[in-house]
Amino acid sequence: MGIQKTEKINIFEYRDYRLFLKDWYALTKKTKASFSFRAFAKKAGFKTSNFLMLVMNGKRNLTEQSLAKFIIGMDLNKQETEFFRSLVFFNQSKSHEEKNQYYQQLLQSKKFGQLMPIEKKQYEYYSSWYHPVIRELVCAKDFDGTPEWLSKRLYPTIKASQCAKSISLLSDLGFIEKDSNGKWQQTSSIVSTGPELTSVVVHNYHKVILDLTKAVMDKLTVKKRDVSTMTLGVKKERIPELRKKLREFRQEILKMVSNDTEPEQVVQLNLQLFNVTREKED
């Protein structure tokens, strides 16, 4: 009933289990003409003959019980089973905490690591506050190229060994490279993570930065920080305008500092806008 060994879908290349199911079904149908939704349901032990189609089209979710039947129906081996289970609940998770938990399980897959080494590094990059800071600092005019120099300049301080690993990570991701004189410089490389992964890593990064803000608030003098907050009562239609103003401001700041190619300091600018009241029910 399974796919012929000469032509097989590699589940470890997928981040959307429904897309995997669609491709798996199409290929299985191609390699075995008698295969159908009904045939799959019979093998997997479903009473509903079109359950696979409903899941593929997003009309049904998988539970632990139905997932176990899918594994039987698709003849998945142990590694594929573990990855498929994590992928299913990664896609179906409603909260960031759950999504992050299942994504970490995906990262633990050996075959995933072999196929997608850069994706694991992307996750690592967004999991610590200091990687983007070091990316900026390596362009400093007085940077001597050593992790020890970076360790002394960073605040809060981190170990030189962490700085060394960060340089290696940034280089592997293509964020920095050495010029003809052997000096580190930034590149214009941008890591594209895809919507599912982006929602996890960006959320993680924002939480890390908020933790950093709390950590340094009581340690920095007023001269070295500028913190302000506003609590505003607004009309519902005003919120998109506020978001637009924030986007424009971010672009203005980026344009202002774009020519600072040899930074003397690295600063963290955070902007947050979020609701602190529930919307009225219609």
User: What's the end-to-end separation, in Å?
Assistant: 51 Å
Biggest sheet record = 2 strands, antiparallel
| Poorly predicted runs | 1-6
**Helix count, per DSSP?**
13
Give an overview of the whole structure.
- The chain has 282 residues and is mainly alpha-helical.
- The protein has two domains: 11-113, 434 Repressor (Amino-terminal Domain), CATH 1.10.260; 116-282, no CATH class.
- 55% of the residues lie in helices and 2% in strands.
- The protein contains 13 helices and two strands, in the order αααααααααααββαα.
- A two-stranded antiparallel ribbon has the order 1-2.
- The chain is globular.
- The N and C termini lie far apart (51 Å).
Topology at a glance:
Blueprint: H1 17-31, H2 37-44, H3 51-56, H4 64-74, H5 78-92, H6 96-107, H7 110-115, H8 117-125, H9 130-137, H10 147-153, H11 160-172, E1 176-178, E2 184-186, H12 194-217, H13 238-257
Antiparallel strand pairs: 1-2
Quick tags:
mainly alpha; 434 Repressor (Amino-terminal Domain); two-stranded antiparallel sheet; 282 residues; globular; disordered N terminus; 2 domains; 55% helix
What would you say about this model in short?
The protein has 282 residues and is an all-alpha fold. The chain has helices at residues 17-31, 37-44, 51-56, 64-74, 78-92, 96-107, 110-115, 117-125, 130-137, 147-153, 160-172, 194-217, 238-257, and strands spanning 176-178, 184-186. It has two domains: 11-113, 434 Repressor (Amino-terminal Domain) (Orthogonal Bundle); 116-282, no CATH class.
